[in-house]
Amino acid sequence: MSFQYNAILITGASSGIGAALARHFARTGVTLFISGRNQTRLQLVENDCRAAGANVYADILDVTSRETMEAYVTHCDEIAPLSLVIANAGISAGTGGLGESPEQVRDIFATNVAGVLNTIDPAIKVMRARKRGQIALVASQASWRGLPSAPAYCASKATVRVYGEGLRGALAPDGVKVNVICPGFVKSRITDANDFPMPFFMQADKAAKKIVRGLERNKGMIAFPWQMNLIIGMLKMTPQWLMDLAASRIPKKTSSSDTHSDTHDGH
Predict the structure, then answer these.
(1) CB neighbour burial string for 205-235, b if at least 16 within 10 angstroms, e if fewer
(2) How many Å apart are CA 159 and CA 230, to the nearest integer?
(3) pTM of the model as a whole
(4) Residue 153 vs residues 8, 132, 157, 205, 239: alpha-carbon distances, Å
């Protein structure tokens, strides 16, 4: 791991990708600011990271509160100037054949879009001022095309992906790096709820290693697995009429409201 990551903030760190990233970065000399919504699971991650030698601050947070996140990120940066911020918290929803309810749709956008903005905006402010830093936005392979199984989830992740792509160029002159992460199906509380086949399913620790390699190389887009990239590439070129024909065969998502400690099911 590059020494530049000496102070790292990760939201949605109580399980899945977020927890795996926290454990991967944990070592002597590193300060970790990890947050989530489940005290028990977050405590386990905190204990593991402390055992690895890291200085750890663990907090239960609601990323949908702009005021809370402004104060939190600013306070973390005062403790240790942030070198890397990973906006990972997010939710999925949908109950069987009923799909995403109107309430769930709004919750998804509040967490997956507004929650990301609430996390990165204060970080951008302090990083711009000192002309260095790195911000990672966790999107999903589901962001490449809207699917009837989870339209709000796909749309929320598409927003994150496109915003991150534009933000990378916008912040480059200020010395701030921006990376977009698009995982496929990764072991998490979200994928635990899926009762349909998940191609190229990956364990969270393996996903974390791929993400860290991409961050260290400052890759603009960190999308994996490569097999899913090929499939998504074909989906992006598929005519809408053919997508409509296949829509009825796509399995519905089951309900999940955990933080992205989870993993962006790439559908």
Answers:
(1) eebbebbbebbeeeeeebbbbeebbebbeeb
(2) 21
(3) 0.84
(4) 26, 32, 6, 23, 21
**195 in the Ramachandran plot: left (φ > 0), alpha (ψ -120 to 50) or beta?**
alpha
- Give me 158's structure tokens: 């598409």
C-alpha 267/C-alpha 250 separation (Å) is 9
Between 227 and 27, whose confidence is greater? 27
Cα gap 39→59, rounded to integer Å: 8
Highest mean pLDDT among 143-157, 187-201, 233-247: 143-157
Letter for the amino acid at 73? V
CATH topology of domain 7-247: Rossmann fold (3.40.50)
The DSSP string of 150-189 is: -HHHHHHHHHHHHHHHHHHHHHGGGTEEEEEEEE-SBSSH
Selection from 71, 85, 105, 70 nearest residue 33 by Cα: 85
Report, as residue numbers or ranges, the catalytic residues: 153
Tens of pLDDT, residue by residue over 43-81, are: 999 999 999 999 999 999 999 999 999 999 999 999 999
Q: Where are the domains of the chain?
A: 7-247
Strands 84-87 and 133-138: parallel
